[in-house]
Amino acid sequence: MPVTDITKDLDNRTLTLTARFAAPAQRLWDLYADPRQIEQVWGPPTYPATFVQHELTPGSQTRYYMTSPEGEKFCGLWDITSTDEPHGFTFIDSFADADFQPVGEMPSTEATVCFTADGDETVMTWTSVYASAHDMQKVLDMGMEEGARQATNQIDDFLARHPAA
Amino acid sequence: MVETSEDRADGLFHALSDRTRRDILRRVLAGEHSVSTLAASYDMSFAAVQKHVAVLEKAGLITKRRKGREQLTSGDVAAVRSVAEMLDELETIWRGRIDRIDALLAHDNPPPTENEN
């Protein structure tokens, strides 16, 4: 399994993911820089992603949409804020209407992506800071159907330690 | 006013964003407490604790009932679970993405096939 760690910070609505890949950093960068490659990995098979505009350069705006099993389109924008090929990039991820106009006043997610070489391998660190629970819910709406839910979580642990009297 | 699932999520996260409220929730999940018992556990006024309880109640995380002069609160386990599930679902989406990246990278160096035509 390439995922080495996913940490969820409930207080700060932050998801930090660390994954190790058997490829050089430049290969990871190339994957994220190429709309045809990124759309193969971004959306779950039930919600395929289409990147209609995408370039990893500061100031550029990525436009993509995901299509639900019912054919409904969910549009998103990435405003690329910084790039450092092949070490990483940052962007603001927001939701858009069907004409790729931003929805809501607040940026949705601040994402920081780092590719760190480790021998022949690369460690990717992806940090997403969600501006509101609303945005988290929207992300889930876009990819809800994938996979089974994790069975255990902190609350389950708590309940196991403190069974109802 | 119609409360959407998103309004509900906002309320849940706001309620859980405070240390004292999380502590109150832990206590009332373990068993019913009166607001005055809870208030005695914290170095703050009864009114302040009551305010925290009200936020938790509004978010649907706890329920309150009256018994004589006491206000008794208990945790709503199902509501608490839904917040954790939201983060778990995001994690699941990410695990899928990582698997697909791994699969795509594996295509770069396909293992040699014995029966290549």
From TrEMBL, chain A:
Residues 23-159 form the Activator of Hsp90 ATPase homologue 1/2-like C-terminal domain. Gene3D superfamilies: 3.30.530.20. Coiled coil: none annotated. InterPro entries: ASHA1/2-like_C, START-like_dom_sf. Belongs to the AHA1 family. This is Activator of Hsp90 ATPase 1 family protein. It comes from Nostocoides jenkinsii Ben 74.
From TrEMBL, chain B:
This is Putative transcriptional regulator, ArsR family. It comes from Nostocoides jenkinsii Ben 74. InterPro entries: ArsR-like_HTH, HTH_ArsR_DNA-bd_dom, WH-like_DNA-bd_sf, WH_DNA-bd_sf. One of its GO terms (molecular function) is DNA-binding transcription factor activity. Pfam families: HTH_20 (PF12840). Residues 1-95 form the HTH arsR-type domain. SMART domains: HTH_ARSR.
